[in-house]
Specification:
alpha+beta, Arc Repressor Mutant, subunit A, Beta-Lactamase, six-stranded antiparallel β-sheet, 17 helices, globular, disordered N terminus, IclR family transcriptional regulator C-terminal domain-containing protein
Length: 509
Amino acid sequence: MGEGGEAGAAGPLERGLEVLGTISRARAPMRPADLARATGLARSTVDRIIATLAAAGHLRVRERDVVLAPQAMEPGNAYLAGTGLCEELAAQAVALADELDESVSLAVPDRDGVRFVAQSPRRRTMSVAFRVGDLLPAERCAPGPLFAADWDEETRRGRRDRPDPGRFSIPPLPSDSFDGRITAAVADGYSVDDQLIEPGLIAVAVPLRDTAGTAVCAVSVVSHTSRHTAASLLEHAGPVLARRAAGMETALAAPAEPGYVPAVPPELGPDLLSSLGRGLSVLTALGTPGGLTLSEVAGRTGLPRATARRALLGLAHLGHVRADGRRFVLLPSVLDLGYRSLTALSFGDLARPHLAALVARVDDSASLAVLDGAEARYVARAPAGRLMRATIEVGTRLPARVTALGRVLLADLDPADARAEPDAAPLAAVRRDGHSLVDHELEDGLRSLAVPVRDRSGRAVAALGVSCPTGRETPDQTLARLLGPLEETAAAVEADLSVVTAFHDLPIV
């Protein structure tokens, strides 16, 4: 059956998300042949899926390797936006972590597992390494017994059978006293993890209940046996956790306002898998607190109702969408479609493909730098293939006031900041023009042009620049040749940064 039939419409969507999930679980870049072997799909099918996901912005093909692109976080962002949990509760989790000086996590139930949706870690030698999107077996963490008290018989049976235990971030326990922990959690109103996740890691969790009394989220305080025993952590954190949880439940009961709106994937060409593209559009459209009706999905995506219905049925079959009355809501399993893997990206990782594309376009070396005190520190670099080029490496620090990159960053500071005081005239020109061009100041014969890279708030968190010899052209010619490509590349970095940081902290280091 072709894509026009209902079963056919689900087929390409199911296969496409299987490929995306396989890449997400991989610990290294995969090639099309690897994906064909891992999924059992024909190579021609894999090639078409890759082309479709690349056109939608979810994958990049580098030479022969297929890797996730930051836009693959959009379905996960849609889920997090649709929960109505994250913004206010995450802020309260940060305040709780600051008050207790311990790591704090927010988690939601996901069938017979527990899925983390927010983390506020403490930066220590021994610290929690879980990422947003990680899925733990319910019996191996503190929130598990809190959620299991509400399980139906199907979920209990699913935990006993578990046909795919590999979906978890850590292995399930072959045998345990989970029923006793569920009973204790119901009686106590809290649950303790005494090194169930791994030796040395301890946690205490309390439920956050909706107005119907169902535990829809749990907040955990996590520590290490080098700091606490399970009993002393409960004594230290229990009263504060109970007080904070009451405020969190009040926030949970408040009507959620739509905040982040994920970008709808672009229209795909006729040679690509249109039903896969439509499924991705529906996934991101559902990022609304309370979900959407079929009519609302159709209106938001521009799809006919029958097409939107087929996509919703296919997504429900895959376990990514649930019907709640007339409304459809996303389920936390969509965090497996790239989100969890991409939270491991560094700022340099995010920017590097864009720098490489810029160098291929202009044939001059490109760099990304951040402000570190009064210095510009290079965090990513792509050298040009020339015999004569600037030999600057990642980690290099240079005085910000004599570099184009540094001046762009200094110009964005509050004028009251002492670092913005020297060379006020050049900084005023940068603020006016939106770029900085520096000739000969760092080194004779070297010219640099830089523009800002801004975060979601509009703050210049980094500067992107290109360096070239001065003898080839005049400053005006350099500006005319490079400014457009630089600004376009900065915009591409900003677009990726906006997606990655919607619900996830990405240190700009």
